[in-house]
Amino acid sequence: MKLYISKLILGLFLLSTSFIFAQNLSKSQFQVRGNCDMCKERIETTAKKAGAKEARYSIDTQILTLETESNISTDDILKKVAEAGHDNEKFKAADETYESLPGCCHYERDLQPSSQTEAQHHQHKKENEFYVKGNCGSCKARIEKAAKDAGASSAEWSAETQTVILQFDASKTSADKILKKIAEVGHDNEKYKASDDVYNDLPGCCLYDREIPMGATNPKVHFEEETSSAHENHNVASENNHADHENKIEGVTISGSKAPTALSKKEAGLTFNIDKKELLKAACCNLSESFETNATVDVSFSNAVTGTKQLKMLGLDQKYTSLTKELLPEIRGLASAYGLNFIPGRWIESIQLTKGGSTVTNGYESITGQINTELLKNSEKPETSLNLFSDFNGRAEANFTSVAPINEKWSQTFLLHGNGTFGNTDMNDDGFLDRPKGTQLNAAYLLNYNDLEKSGLGSHFGINFIKDERTAGQTGFNKQLDQDEQSAYGVGINISRFQVWNKTGYVFKGKPYQSLGWMNQYVYHQQDSFFGLRNYSGKQHTYYSNLIFESILGNTNHKYKAGASFLYDGYDETYLTDNYKRNEIVPGIFAEYTLTGLKYTLVAGARADFHNLAGTQFTPRLNFKYDFTPQTIVRLSAGRGFRTASVFAENQQYFASNRSIQILQNGGNIYGLKPEIAWNYGISLQQEFKLFGKKSSIVADFFRTDFQDQVLVDLDRSPQQLTFYNLEGRSFANSFQTQWDFTPFKNFDVRLAYKYYDVQADYLEGRREIPFMAKHRGFMNLAYATNKNSKGGFWSFDTTLNWVGKQRLPDMSGNPAEFQLPAYSNSYAVLNAQISRNFNKKLRAYLGGENLTSYQQENPIIDFKNPFGNYFDGGMVYAPIMKANFYVGLDVTF
After folding, report:
1. pTM for this one?
2. CB–CB of 860/881 below 8 Å?
3. How confident is the model over 407-416, as pLDDT tens digits?
4. What is the SS3 assignment for 453-469?
């Protein structure tokens, strides 16, 4: 009996001891960097060896949860974790230890440990400061409103610190009552937790991570999206001012910077964001060269005499894509042929590329998508850069950019570009220049005002002037003599362009979800040109205005935009002796509704435009995104677009030929033709997964464009004729693309893509494939960079391979046999590559080559020996016209 009692007492003692020790265990959480399951095992094992009773690491949240006894220091544990190779909020791993980790464990080293720990920071809160979880501007408005409804005289919530500072009369309310009210509207805080039902009813952008410890940094604030675009439907006055985000009013981008190239997971539309860092991977002298590492856009020469380039997307010409700058109409009308050369690559801060129908707030002209270019205008400190570039065939350019804050509200940007082509480049010895000689001077000034968070006002002003002069044709052409005074064939192009714009926005006080934006732009464009004995000149005056109001219906799950626009285009063109004048006056109204659910986003919009020449046009557009999981996203889109065709300006690539122009009028008011109208439908799948312990993604999309009406450019009726007429029958374009991005090992990125196009139209002689459009295309981009040294220096290597399948060529059977083309071209491949060396953060040099396969179209100019004869034609271009070309460049930042 005594033995039994002794055992019972001993058992109770041991049980009570273990209970006491259990009561002395403390639980804490810390940020630790890791990448894969190997990291998880290493971190947890190291923590336990260092004294933790329990250690659980989450790769997704980058949080290590520790359970320790009171006599165990978490600092000692985190120090051991760092010694094992993993940066954390208190200690940083040694570089050599980090480098010795397996490749799959090489995480992004963006965590900056501080001597003052998170816990210490928590202890130094102000007396009336409390932890409240949230993500964005909508959260801020909701939290502060709830606090004031509960009796607070003022409430200031910070997304960055995840705290709210309260001011209140203690005789009327209390912190407990206020925090309880905040929890009731959906926001967990240090005293109360929101109910699951209320939390789940929050808009998608407001769904904060409930597992993150109270007061810890919210990753959705600092790293929520790898992309940020000028199209983001984010609230304007977000408390978060991190560099990866921006404050904006719809169409009025005020500040912020863009992340590297990525497909936005937030956008309902299929939107790619291209950062300026991506543009450094290639020569990128201007916008036409900004898509060399992008598989979506096809870039090709369109004329062997003038050397012009054109973009194509979804199997259709550039004119069907809305090309904007700062969300304002840019490359259209008279600028269609040469406008890609007017935006220097070094001026570009980011590009947003949307496939398929874009938002109705940006106009009615988009049919296959939108490409928006944002200029350099964001910098926390003054930054001045100089770029010098030269290739081995007589082309040189210089770019000067200066972005600087004037004070806390004002900043300014100076942009200056000059280029010149001086060498006689004739690689195929046909006596014609492979690219024109000449110069361009391009200057712009931008002024920005940002007081969104205080007064709610922001404004952006810009002015741009361009002077571009080009001479092409035979190498013996003397530009000092008139064409009729010499036998050599010449081309002269002289362009002057001036534009001024302003975008002003206002965010309503206390309502970051409600804003008003107004955009205005005036453009003057003049071109004087000749092509042998043919002359073409034109003037265009354009005024554009767009007013947008944005707010919510009840809550931020239901957003809407409404507004009005006005467009004036005045054209005065002369071709040979014929003069064509027209004024297009287009007032319009529009509305757009966005419904946001936990896993879906629906954007439905419509606009009505009252065109004085094309009649009233109704333009509906719909985009829908559904997240099956955070890694599996499906998108659907449908929409209508219309445009008026500028048949002369948009087809100047055929002017350097003997072809006469014939317009078969059908009673329309623009060159006797009706406007172009098309419907576009699309579906896409975005799938992310881990491969080699790194993020990988596959995107597959299919788009179809059906023309209700179209101005066909018929090159087949006769080799001596260029005929324009309206579609009678069907015209369609099917586009399929799949793209795979992955990182096989650290610092090495691979992008593979395949595209299939089926583009056909009913011409007068029957249905045919559109010429110069390959059915099959392949794409590969490889990019590798070495680790940065202590001065920020590193090497980078980039190469891109484009494979282009056979293309249908125009019917030239009416010519003598020696001046005919085959029915289809041969397939070919083009290889571009670049090596660059960043010596430090301020000095970079690069060397590259284009068309390293040296594939060159044979005889791109038909009957080049007799340029004034009946069979001369410089517009039948389907492949590169220059062999391998090498270049060097230097970037210096002051």
Report:
1. 0.77
2. yes
3. 889 999 999 9
4. CCCCEEEEEEEEEEEEE
